[in-house]
Amino acid sequence: MRMMSRLAASVALAALAGAAMAQTAPGAPGDQPTWVNAAKTGAGASYEAYVDGQYRDGGRTGDVSRVWFSIADGVLTETMYGLIHEAQIKQLRFAVVTDTGLSVEGTDTTSRTEYLHTDDQGRPLSPAYRIITTDKQGRYEIEKRIYVSPDDQALVVRAAVRALRGDVTPYLLLEPHMANTGVGDRGWHSTATLSQTASDGSTSYSVLQAAEGDVHLALWANAAFEAQSVGFVGVSDGLTDLADGRLDHVYDSTGPEGGNIMLTGALPKLRAGESLSRDFVIGFGDSEPAAAREATRPFVTGLDEVLRRFNGEGDRIGWEDYLASLSDLPRIAGQSTDGGKLAYASALMLKVQEDRTYAGALIASLSNPWGDTVDATESSTGYKAVWPRDFYQVAMALMALGDAETPVAAFRYLPQVQVRADTPGNTGATGWFLQKTHVDGQIEWVGVQLDQTAMPIMLGWKLWKAGRIDDAELTAMYARMIKPAADFLVDGGKAGILWNDRQITPPWTQQERWEEQEGYSPSTTAAVITGLTVAADIARASGDPASAARYQAAADDYASKVEARMFTTAGEYGDGRYFLRLSRNEDPNDKLPLGENNGQPAMPEDRIIDGGFLELVRYGVRAADAPSITATLPEYDDQQREARFRVRYDLNGVPGFRRYGNDGYGENADTGGNYGVGGMTPGQRGRVWPIFTGERGHYELAALLAHPSADQDWNTAQLNLIRQTYVRGMESFANDGLLLPEQVWDGVGNATPHNYQPGQGTNSATPLAWTHAEYIKLLRSLADRAVWDRYAPVEERYAR
């Protein structure tokens, strides 16, 4: 068990020094706020052990920390406290005044990201980071060590500044975005004293503070700042003031009027060759005293000891213990081509991206896509939310790692996001799963996506067959969650939440897995057939043979019509025979245009291909060598097609794929600007997603396993080819923090604004949990020589 820092010493906080704050910053509310770069190179939180499957104080890891952080461009970015989507900080960075002008971290620096705690093979053992930023003109270097205090609601940043050439004066710049917005924040600064014991005397600390409503932040520095100021961004903030190289105007408070604020602390001037170290702890709480208590406790514990607890070194319980609990991690890491580094990092990332109030609530990403141009005036989750599809991928990857607890907690969480009669505002059908919610179940998006209703059933069946849940729990969850979901997959119904009043008739789906189109989708239909087939198995085990027969009959019907509904025989490409991305109706040959999306014009459905048909093979609905599958592969792989409709791009020798032809969810090919900047225009272009490199690797494995050679050396060589092509391919898309993105640059269009290189992650969303999950599942599939997401009852019935 972690030793609790709050028991190690008594803490006494001094009153604010001096008279009442007099200098109020002008310029409220400041510039319109945005979020920040979503291409994270680091993300972290503490490891917290469950107590009876839930997060509660008093377990093996003591009190539960509810702090998450992220890193991009070498600086601390979105930092959350409370629920996993509740950001309190936009960014913390340094501005440095030099003899030749002002330099700002992130903008005027290069950076590299390293893990602080690794094994002797260089594999990360915790999400604690060392970040080194170097001035592009070679004038200074800053090293930051960043990690969470696992026993407190606090984040530790240990900084060292080195003057490399000429004199430099660093300034810490902290931009709060309290309560998950960049408006309404108030800020002030003070000094305080900390006394650890009666005989130790006291130490003076500089304190920068911010608050909105009942959420407070306090940054404590272990040595007094040379000067402190608070102000409104773009008007009276420290960075604006430093444009002339001097902090000319200092303010004590932003006053009673909230806004977009910045807190500034000046550090001593350094001569060439000198260095300076400072420690900062940021505490969070529901009041000013609570935030101060959380910020001071790590200093009392000792920041080196805090890191050891975070890591789980020795008899302390932390991240080392979590990794050690993953029974299959060493075995599957052996399938990597990088010595297991990305496998270990992926295991950390998948667990980091779970809420610490709602056990098992697995989000899509600790990022806000294209955040540096996304408005932060209103609270939003970005990707820090629950989609049952991404959720399924992550839970299955954690199960593949040998995590015995989190997938079960995830399964037990799922009823919170299923539509019931008592779901707020519901006047329609029940049983389907909400498109997107906050981790506490608050409704955000309400489109009906049938794969998201099938996948919770699929997860339950896998857990049951693996012995993670027993027959009694399965039967209880059948009545509570699985049967309503399966009934909806058979009967459909009329949605009745918010704007959505559509009639759903399965397997027709209101939205397929990219949340943009309605109709018959190969990937969605594959999940629906699989969900119903395993629901029939669960129904029989739960004493409901009549429902079992009904579910299997519906699955048989859907499976028998896959090609009739979604496989064109009169298409635009090749010999005209291939799976469509989507058919609007039951005639895949009518060339009906799909809907307009993301600024892209409507195009005939036979001109739009994607990799969704491979999901039919993954789950076992079709054999790898089924004629409809093999006929589609050449069209999916065609790299001679015009850029709008082309899907495959081999990047640096790695097979990569876009979501589908005509995808507009990405940077503008004409301007290079972020998605959505300037409105939805035809120039927007969805890029390559590393997920599909893994999906294709799974298909190639399924194809090999369907027809293995009698020559075992040949089989081994083919497995190694898959590893070297698809595993190594996914590894090539990771950044220096070993995080995998949603999208990577495909080399098409204007890359100037970001200077992206082919295969480099874009500012869409990193880390994407689904990408890490796909990588882990591909390793597990290779280790097992069996596709991890294959469902035996489905394969036995349909993949003949």
Reconstruct the topology from this structure.
Elements: E1 12-13, E2 42-45, E3 67-72, E4 75-81, E5 87-98, E6 101-104, E7 109-115, E8 129-135, E9 140-149, E10 154-163, E11 168-176, E12 186-195, E13 203-212, E14 215-221, E15 227-232, H1 238-241, E16 261-266, E17 275-285, H2 288-301, H3 303-311, H4 319-325, H5 329-333, H6 341-352, H7 388-401, H8 406-413, E18 436-437, E19 443-445, H9 450-465, H10 471-491, E20 493-494, E21 503-504, H11 522-541, H12 545-560, H13 562-566, E22 567-568, E23 578-579, H14 614-619, H15 627-637, E24 648-651, E25 654-658, E26 688-689, H16 691-706, H17 712-732, H18 769-784, H19 792-798
Antiparallel strand pairs: 1-12, 2-3, 3-4, 4-5, 5-6, 5-11, 7-8, 8-9, 9-10, 10-17, 11-16, 12-13, 13-14, 14-17, 15-16, 18-19, 20-21, 22-23, 24-25, 25-26
Helix pairs in contact: 2-3, 6-18, 7-8, 7-9, 7-18, 9-10, 9-11, 10-11, 10-12, 11-12, 16-17, 16-18, 17-18
